Structures are given as C-alpha cells and as structure tokens.
Amino acid sequence: MTAVLSKYRQAFLVGLQSNLIYRWNFLARGLFSLLRLGVSVILWSAAYAGIARIGGFSLDQTLTYFITLILLQFFIGAFNEDYQISEDIRNGLINQFLTKPINYFLYRFSVFAAARMVSGALIVIPVALFLPILRGWLTFPHDAWRFACAIPALTMAALIQFTIAYCFGLLTFWLLEIQGFVILSMAVETVLGGQMFPLDLMPPAIYRASQFLPFFYQMYFPAAILTGRIAFPSVVQGLGIQLAWVVILLIVAEFLWRRGLRRHTAVGG
Amino acid sequence: MNYFRIWLAGARYSLVRTLMFRGDFFVWSLVELLWMTVNLLLIAVIYRHTASVAGWNEYEMVLLVGTGMIVQRLVTGFFWSNLFELGRNVRTGAFDFYLSQPGNPLFMVSTRKLDPDGLVNSVVALGIVIYAVHRLGLHPSVLDAALYCGMIVAGVVIHYGILVLTMASTFWLTSSNGIEGTYFTLVDFSRLPREAFKGLAGVVFVWLLPVVVVSNAPARTLLHGFQPLWTLWIAGVAVLWLIIAVAVFNLGLRRYSSASS
Is residue A269 one of the residues assigned to a domain? Predict the structure, then answer.
C-alpha cells in the first residue's frame, strides 16, 4: 500500500517541480482573470442600478460569486490537462506507462493535483494585491454546514473537471486533433458551469434541467455552496447527483482508455 | 495594386487550404458560433431581471454586442492567426522569412493567411445586428448604414492596432507566452455600454484605451443617427492607434536580431 502511494507521491512531486517552471504563466493568467473580473463588475453594477436584488441576491453577493469562481478556477479547474494527455498519446510517451506498473489515470491525476497546488498558491498573490478593492464586495455566509459540504463538493468538482479533460485527451486515440472539440466543450462548460452568469438566474425550468448535467457540478455547485446561493436540501441532493457523475465519468474514462489502447499502435524504438 | 495582388494570392491559398480541411473549418465555425451564442445568453439572462443596463434596453444591447462581434470576427478572419504567429516567429527566428520578402514587413506579416471561419461568422454577427435593428423598429438611412460600415472598418483598424502592439512586445520580451491574453481581455471590455464605465474605469477604458469607442460609436449611429462627436472620435482614435502600432512595430524591427543557430 505504502509502495503504491509513494509511486504517485513521486509523480506529484515531479508535477510540482515542472509546474513551478510555469509560475509566471499562472501569475499572468491570474492577473488577466482579475482584469476580466472588471467586465463583470462594470456589467453587473450597471444591471443592478436602481435594483436591490436580482434573483434574490444583492450586487455584493453576485460579485462575491464571480470572485469565488476565479479562486476555484485556479484551485480545482482543469487548465490544459487535455492537451498534455493528447501530446502523451501523439508522441508515444504513453507507451512507457503500458509497460510499467503505474496507472496512467492516477499518474495524471497526481500531476494535476500538483499543478493546482502551484496555480492555487499563485492566484492568492494577485487576489491579495487587489484585496483592498475586492474587500468591499466580499460577503460570505457563515453557516458551518456550508464549509462542511463544500469540502466533498470541491473534491468531486476537481475530479469531474479532471476526468472530463482526461476523456477529451483520450480522444486523440481516434482523432488527429482535439483542439476544436476542446474549445467547443469549453463554451458549453463556461455557460452550464456557471462562469458566464450564476445559473440560478436562468429560467427555473432550465435551472432544474442543468442540475442533472455534470457541468453544474464542476464549478457552479461548490461556488454556490460557498457563496450562499443554494439551500441545504438542494445541497444534499446535489452531492448525490455529483457523486453519480463522478462514477459515470470514471467509467467512461476507463472505457475510453481500454478501447483506445486497442486502437493504439506504438511506433518507433 | 501590387500589394493587393499579393494579398489576393494569400487569400486564394487560404481558401484552398480550407477546402482541403473541411472538417476543421466546420468545427471552428461551430466554435465561434457557440461563443457568440454564449454572449447572447448572458444578455438574455441579465434582461430577465432588469429592463435596462446603463440606459440600454435588451435589443439595444444585442445591437451593441453584435457590433462588437462583427469587428472581432473580421479581425479574426483577416489578421488574428497571422499576428499570433508573429509572436512565435520572432522567438524562433522564422521571422527572417518575412524580412527577406520584397515588401513592407508589417504588411507581409499581417496578410499571409485568411481564416474563412471568422469571416463566415462575421456574416452571422451582421445577421444578429440586423435582427436587433428589426426588433427595435429602426429604419436607418442609407447614409447611416454607410457610416456604420465605415465605423466598423475604423473599429477593425483599432483592434488591429491593439493586436500589433500586443504582439510586437515579443521583440522586447523573450517569452511572450499568453501575451495575446492582453488583447482578448481588452476586447471583452468593448462589449459594454459607455455609460456603464464610471470613475477610474471610465478614464482607463473610455479615454486611455480605445476599447469602448469601437462598438459604442457604430451602435449609437444606428440607434440615434449621425453623431459628429462619436464619428470624429472613432476616426481619430483609429488613426492615432494605427500610427502608434506601426511606429512601435518598426522600433521592434530595429531590435530584432534573428534567433537562428
């Protein structure tokens, strides 16, 4: 058991080092994210002019939601994991995993966890820098159960984010180029994950329907728990659906991996 | 005239390429279409809860965002991938190839390729604007429509200027990874109405950086007819930023010392 764990711990440590190389990239991305927050601030401030509440939430609560999204993006979001996996397959690096007693999914997930540790630590810097401005808007609920529920929700959200990216990466077994599909799905995830607007502002019927999709759980759900946009009964139900999606996506990933390997031919020496 | 022939040759080559990779063209057109839909969804959701944003009603906002999309799709279609590659080429030294060509380097760099999917989607964006005009019951005169087109061209020039400036920074920076984010971040702001910008944001995005005028000036022309101040403003900003961009590019050119082995 410890031998198994130490294997992935090494992968994690290597991931930590290789992601530290990109610290300036992460930092720049963080700054751009905060600049883009400016668009949301200006737009929603204008929308709230003369209105105290939209969908039952104040302007501060809505802006807190968007700020939380930025933090979550850097702590649990998938960045370019799909491309990394795609590259592994394309240039044959994947072959070395086939002959070694290491699980590719777990290896990649260890590297992903390390990457998010680096990017998560780095987003704290620009957020702290802008905190004097941001602080005026921040308003979090204080219920203890929200933090307790946020932990499993965040963990599963990270798993869903990573597994979706992993599946897209595996498509390389069948397709030469996945870039188009990745960006296509990114548009869907951006909307249905709640990055454009809080999903609860959609018409109730569509909001209900979105709760049954995996995208709901990769960003909006944990953010809504933390910022008080979702009530306790819905959270409990949500955690159940989220768990179901984790299981389904893991099965899909395993299925794609097995099927893909059957098509895969290792070329060269 | 000579330059037009060069451009035409590049355009023809790009079209042939697109016909070769039809699946790619289809996927990328879909991608851009989807992103435009995403922005319209945002408008739809906001206006479910409020009747006006900074004094703009729902279809006025669609008109504004659609106008911004036309400009951005045209820039994507004509210039984006060319200038994006400029960053990479300067780093790798492949930029030498452009310098050895008998023509203005900035022209050669900017016009090598066309992206037909961007151009196709600019037509879709135009459709969105026409739909908004129809819903608003506007009947712009021929002159206003012509002015609108002229301002779109000015908007493309402004975006081009920002893009050249962004990518020309590779002449000074060794690593320009992600530098194109600057351009996209700025463009995001151009979808907002001028009235929404207050305080420091107003100074920066309305006056210092030419992002707000790009979509607001043409949209206002369709909504309220010819407005001398906005017309002068967008024309002036286009000329100014093009001059700055060309000057900075030429400065960078002097610094460029190839990167080959």
Answer: no
Q: How far is CA B73 from CA A175, B158, B159, B160, B162, in A?
A: 27, 14, 11, 12, 15
**CA atoms of A39 and A41, how far apart (whole Å):** 5
**Is A3 contained in some domain?**
no
pLDDT of residue A184: 84
Could you tell me the CA-to-CA distances from A36 to A29, A120, A195, B133, B200 in Å, in that order? Answer: 10, 18, 12, 29, 15
Rg (CA), chain B: 19
Sign of the CA dihedral running B39, B42, B43, B44: positive
| Residue type, position B130, single letter | I
Q: Tokens 């060509």 appear where?
A: B101
Residues in chain B closer than 8 A to A203 (CB atoms): 48
Please list, residue by residue across A33-58, b when 16 or more beta carbons sit within 10 angstroms of its beta carbon and e when fewer do.
bbbbbbbbbbbbbbbbeeeeebbebe
Residue A2, pLDDT > 50, answer yes
pLDDT for position B174: 63
CB contact under 8 A, A38 and B189: yes
Angle at B65 between CA A184 and CA B38, to 5 degrees: 25
* Number of structural domains in chain A: 1
Provide, rounded to the nearest whole percent, the portion of chain A with pLDDT above 90: 68
Could you tell me the two tokens for A6?
A: 């130490």
Phi, psi of B56 (to 5 degrees): -105, 130
| B196 Cα to chain A: minimum distance (Å) | 6
What integer pLDDT is reported at residue A269 of this predicted model? 46
Contact A203 B48 (CB under 8 A): yes
Range of the domain at A44: 8-263
Residue B261 scores a pLDDT above 60? no
ipTM (interface predicted TM): 0.88
B218 C-beta neighbours (distance < 10 Å), count: 30
Q: Running DSSP on this structure, what letter comes out for residue B191? A: T
> CB within 8 A of A268, min separation 6: which ones?
A92
Percent residues over pLDDT 90 in chain B? 46
